[in-house]
Write a structure and sequence with these properties.
Oligomer: single chain
Radius of gyration: 19 Å
Shape: globular
C-alpha cells in the first residue's frame, strides 16, 4: 500500500489478543462455548478500537459461525491510516476452551488493504502446511506418501518419525488412514488448526506437517503468519455441496485452483499476533493467580521476518479491559 506502516503493528495487536484470551479464559471448562466466544469478542473489539489503523474485517466470525460481531466488512481501528485488511479469530478453539482442553488461541492478523483472499461462504479448504525447511518441496495434488517423503528428506528424518497434525473429523478419515499406512504418526486435534499450521514452522513443536480439511478463514489467517515464518501453505477450496459450488461459480472462484500462501495473502507486509487461551504446541495458556493473569503470546511481521514471544503479567485492579 502507498502508506505502508512504518511501525510494527503486531506490537499493538498483541494487546488485542491478550485481552481476548484473558476474557475467554474465565469461561474455561464451564461447557459454554458461546460464552467463551462472546467474552473474547467483546474484549477484542474494545481494544481494537484504540489501534492506529483503518481496518476492514475480511476474515471475521460471520460467515462460518453466524456471529453478530466482528463480522466480514466491519470497520475496526481508530480510522487513521494505514488502510489494512483484518483477519480475526477471537478464539480459535471455543469448544476446546469450554471443555478445558489444550490448543485454543486468540488470534488477529493484518495485511495491506485488498491483499487478503476472501472465501465468502466457502468455509472449508483442503490444506497442507510445512515449515521453512520443506517449503517448495510439497504439492497438495501429489499423493500423501510423496509429500511425507519430501518432508522427511527436508527435515533429515525417517518417514516413521514424521508427525502429521490433522483435524479429527469424519471428512479427514481417509487422510488419517493414508498417513498411518505410510508409517507416519498422526497428531489428531479436535479444533485449532491455525496453531497447527504455525507449529509446522516452529522447530521444537514436534509437528512436521499439517494435512486435511479445515476452515477457510483459518487458512487465510495462518497464511499471514507463514509469510513471516518462511513456511508454506497450500489449499484447495472444499465445497460441501451444490449450493457452494454454485456460489463459487457466481463469484468466479475456481474450485480447481491451488491457493498458495501468496494467493491467500499477497501483501509482503503482514502482521500476526496470537495469545494462548489454553496451552498448545505453540503457546502456553492463561495462568490466573489471584489478582493477576500471565499471558504468553507470539507476534510476527513478514517484512522483517521478526518473530517475538511475549510473556506478560496483567493486574486486574489496574487494567480494567482485562
Amino acid at each position: 500500500m502507498s502508506d505502508a506502516p512504518d511501525r510494527n503493528l503486531a506490537m499493538e495487536l498483541v494487546r488485542v489478543t491478550e485481552a481476548a484470551a484473558v476474557a475467554a479464559s474465565r469461561w474455561q471448562g464451564r461447557g459454554d462455548k458461546n460464552a467463551v466466544d462472546q467474552a473474547a469478542v467483546d474484549a477484542m473489539r474494545a481494544i481494537l478500537s484504540t489501534v492506529e489503523m483503518d481496518g476492514v474485517v475480511v476474515i471475521g466470525e460471520g460467515e462460518k459461525d453466524e456471529a453478530p460481531m466482528l463480522y466480514n466488512g466491519e470497520r475496526v481501528g481508530n480510522g487513521n491510516k494505514p488502510e489494512v485488511d483484518v483477519a480475526v479469530d477471537p478464539v480459535d478453539g471455543t469448544t476446546l476452551t469450554a471443555r478445558g482442553s489444550d490448543g485454543a488461541l486468540a488470534v488477529i492478523a493484518l495485511a495491506s488493504r485488498g491483499s487478503m483472499f476472501s472465501p465468502g461462504s466457502l468455509v472449508y479448504m483442503d490444506k497442507i502446511a510445512v515449515g521453512e525447511e520443506a517449503a517448495g518441496t510439497v504439492d497438495i495434488e501429489a499423493p500423501i506418501a510423496h509429500n511425507i517423503g519430501q518432508v522427511a528428506k527436508a527435515r533429515g528424518k525417517g518417514v516413521g518419525d514424521v508427525t502429521v497434525m490433522i483435524l479429527d473429523r469424519p471428512r479427514n478419515e481417509s487422510i488419517i488412514a493414508e498417513v498411518r499406512a505410510v508409517g507416519s504418526r498422526c497428531a489428531l486435534i479436535t479444533d485449532g488448526d491455525i496453531a497447527g499450521a504455525i507449529a509446522t514452522a516452529k522447530a521444537d513443536s514436534g509437528i512436521d506437517m499439517l494435512l486435511g480439511i479445515g476452515g477457510s478463514p483459518e487458512a487465510v489467517t495462518a497464511a499471514c503468519a507463514m509469510r513471516a515464518l518462511g513456511g508454506e501453505l497450500q489449499c484447495k477450496i472444499w465445497p460441501r455441496g451444490d449450493e457452494e459450488r454454485q456460489y463459487a461459480a457466481d463469484n468466479n472462484i475456481d474450485l480447481t485452483q491451488v491457493l498458495t500462501t501468496h494467493d491467500l495473502v499477497s501483501s509482503d507486509d503482514t502482521f500476526f499476533a496470537a495469545t494462548g487461551v489454553t496451552s498448545s504446541a505453540l503457546l502456553d495458556g492463561i495462568q490466573l493467580h489471584g489478582n493477576t493473569a500471565r499471558t504468553h503470546s507470539v507476534v510476527m511481521r513478514s517484512r522483517t521476518g521478526t518473530v517475538r514471544f511475549v510473556e506478560a503479567i496483567h493486574r486486574f485492579d489496574r487494567v480494567k479491559s482485562l
